[in-house]
Amino acid sequence: xxxxxxxxxxxxxxxxxxxxxxxxxxxxxxxxxxxxxxxxxxxxxxxxxxxxxxxxxxxxxxxxxxxxxxxxxxxxxxxxxxxxxxxxxxxxxxxxxxxxxxxxxxxxxxxxxxxxxxxxxxxxxxxxxxxxxxxxxxxxx
Length: 141
Fold this sequence. Notes:
The chain is of the alpha+beta class. The chain folds into 2 domains: about 5-75, Alpha-Beta Plaits (2-Layer Sandwich); about 80-135, no CATH class. It is about 15% helix and about 25% strand. The chain is built from 4 helices and 8 strands, in the order ββααβαβββββα. The strands form 3 sheets. It has a 3-stranded antiparallel sheet, with helices on one face.
C-alpha cells in the first residue's frame, strides 16, 4: 500500500506519495523554500502562496505530488480527469496524464490518477513505472 502524506495551509492541500517519487528535483529547483528534502517535515507549505504551490506541484513528473483545493476536495475526487495525454520526455520516461488502469503481467491491476510515469530505458527497478534510473545509465533517445 502506498504511503500518503498531506500538507495543508488551510486553502490548498499538497498530497505526497513517496513511493511514486522519481527524485527528479523539479520541486526543489522550482520552490526551494517550500521543498526541503533534508528537513522534516520536508514540505514547508507556509513558505509560498497557494498559486505558486499549485503551479509547482503540477510540474511533478511522477505524480508523487498532487494537490486539491480544500473546499473542492469532494468534487475533485468524484470527477477525475477525462482526457488522457501521453508525453514523451526526451531521454526520459513516458508521462501519462489522466486516470488509467494498469494491468500487470501477473494479472493484478491498479488504478492510477493524475500522472503516471512509465519506464522507456529498461533500467527501472519498479517496472513498468519509472524510478529515475534513466539518469544513471545516461539513457538517450
